[in-house]
Task: structure prediction
Amino acid sequence: MPVQKVLVVGGGITGSVLSLALARRGVRVDLVEISPQWFGVGHGITVQGNALKALRSVGVLDRVLARAVPFDSMRLRRADGSLLTELPTPRTGGPDLPATAGALRADLQDALCDAVRAHGVRVRLGLSVARLGPPGGDRAEVTFTDGSTGTYDLVVGADGINSRMRELIGIAERPRPVGMSIFRVVAKRPPGMDCAEVYYGGPRFKAGYSPVSPDACYAYLLDENLDASLIGPRAPLALLRERGAGYGGMWGAILDALPEDTAVDYRWIEAVLVDGPWHRGRTLVIGDAAHACPPLIAQGAAMCTEDAVLLADLVCGEEPVERALESFMARRLPRVRMVLENSLRLADWEIHPGTPGADPARIMSETLASLVEAA
Result:
């Protein structure tokens, strides 16, 4: 019997897409989000074609593309800004969708939040799961952090790389540092920026940017892991200027033009893969809670949204829920493992320059080409 009542834990991109995909199929959905406020925040995001396909399936693509910037190629540059090559990007969402779109996370999340509420999902903020009942049977028992309880056909943890749900259902894997970090800013979009560009060969691992709206761009710098006390949304702009010195071209111009009150987000990059079943009885984790990779192929949002749409398809189908979850794992694990392993390989090549046989352009192109096949 298809599921009729589902709890989604986490109101980010993954949880929102899953809630929409289920609600559009007539499922009663409760969504709990630990934050007391629920709206779009953060920097820019690169949304590949397979993620755009998922967004179209839950009815929010037109609103997202109204503000986003679509493009079908990326350019690789030397640190001084001179061109190395331009690579066409495979249309992983199909020929009728852009290969890629740059978007503000705020624009994407706001579109999802509005759609979730419009489809009758019961949203409860400032709340998460404290305890789960014992696995087994055809229902999942939940105790929330406010002491209230609930019973569901399925409970899905979509609560990110530092997932509490992963721990609650007894999965031992934890995120680990990759060995690189990232500075991120949203800046004024310069004239002439029409696609993502990446700068190699400079003093850090690499720098890059992408247009994310008609007037904004997302710029980043990949660096070694600096002091952990810097981690957060307000790293010093002076530090970014210091670490980013040595890159020219448009990236250098963006850095030089940043206002002194620019919000600089700094994070160590971590990875995790639950390399086995993501479910225990009627509970499971998906998205970054089950697999999170370095952002070197820009497939993070795509892998998460693919999870959400496929899970909704399967648990609302004719198979018993337990078998639907097995089918879900059989289809998802090989695909996300491939993306994660290739992303980690790219990170290793960045950390260890001069590695024999290193060919980032080939790995990126081959990975995206393999994702043209439907999830």
About this structure: The mean pLDDT is 95. The radius of gyration is 20 Å.
